Amino acid sequence: MIKLIATDLDGTLLSQVGEVSERNVQAIRQAQAAGIEVVVATGRSYKSAFEPINKAGLSCPIICLNGANIYNIAGEQLRHITMTKKIALEIFEVVNRENAYFELYTNKGVYSQDRENFLDVIINIMLSAHPEITRAEIEKRAEQRFQEESFVFTNDFRAVINDPEIEVFKALAFSLEADGLVRIKQPFLNRQDLTVTSSGFDNVEFNHPEAQKGIALEQFASQYKISLQEIMAIGDNYNDVSMLDVVGRSVAMGNAEAGVKKRCKYVTASNIEDGVAQAIEAIL
After folding, report:
1. Which residues lie across from 106 on neighbouring strands?
2. pLDDT in tens, 258-281
3. How confident is the model at residue 210, as a pLDDT?
4. Amino acid 151: pLDDT
5. Separation CA 106–CA 165 (nearest Å)
6. Which of 187, 189, 190, 257 maximizes the CB count within 10 A of its CB?
7. For residue 83, what are the CA distances in angstroms to 87, 130, 166, 192, 271?
8. How confident is the model at residue 201, as a pLDDT?
9. What contacts 17, CB < 8 A, 6 or more positions away?
10. 3-state helix/strand/coil string of 96-131
């Protein structure tokens, strides 16, 4: 019997324009009414994850930054896993050498290079990923992401990382050049002090090895005395694998990466076909 549902956001619970569909909302409410805990598990920051959930009228605990933080429904932080400054600097130097776009997720907000560069990168990436969506809609969504996150713009990431008041939770590199992403990942693969993953074809994400969705989900579930076998997890990309691999009912989205689908017991419809709702309805 499923007692807890964990769902990713982008490419999973959210539509292409970053919203929760009415069918998904109703399915989550039905699960909660049946006594099933529902938790969001995302690579986003808490603020960015909370916005679309709150807009949809839902209340859920949130595992964010790939498991570096957990927040309860009241917005209280329950988990806090940071990476070392030495590793953060190593990552920045490699990304900078490749001239790729870089974001640093910290306790003081998300650091980026500059607003125009941010918007250009996001628009180009979204246009590449969703050619069926108009540029006007893409630009609107990119601007929305700018509003959702607490962005801080800097020209000196080294100074940011070395600031004693800054704690780094996650580093993220964006590039439309596949070879560039490979070169960024390569120096950090098979290291014990870092987890390297991805939430899309266009990015690489770096976290402390304990900051993984699967580890955070197990910690969260233990508070409710829920076993991993009593959890259904739903996701679409490689930063979801750590939770999909350990739960009793793993569900890949119809739009999930092929490698993710192979690891899951079930495949639901895509995020634009209310795949999360269909997965929930199947167990109610």
Report:
1. 109, 168
2. 999 999 999 999 999 999 999 999
3. 98
4. 86
5. 10
6. 257
7. 7, 33, 11, 12, 32
8. 81
9. 133, 137, 140, 141
10. HHCCCEEEEEECCEEEECCHHHHHHHHHHHHHHHCC
pLDDT below 50 — which residues of the chain?
A: none
Domain ranges of the chain: 4-80+211-281, 85-207
Give the pLDDT confidence score for residue 118 in this predicted structure: 67
Q: Give the length of the chain.
A: 284
Query: What three-state secondary structure class fits 17?
Result: coil
- DSSP state at residue 12: I
Burial class (CB in 10 A: 0-12, 13-18, 19+), 134: exposed
Predicted local distance difference test score (pLDDT) of residue 144: 67
- Looking at every residue in the chain, the average pLDDT score rounds to 93
Q: Could you tell me the pTM of the whole model?
A: 0.91
Note whether 135 and 122 are within 8 A (CB).
no
Regarding the domain delimited by 85-207, which CATH topology (the fold level of the hierarchy) does it fall under? Answer: 3.30.1240
Which residues are the active-site residues? 8
The CATH homologous superfamily of the domain defined by 4-80+211-281: HAD superfamily/HAD-like (3.40.50.1000)
Report the C-alpha gap between 122 and 261 in whole angstroms: 26
At residue 280, φ and ψ (nearest 5 deg) are: -70, -45
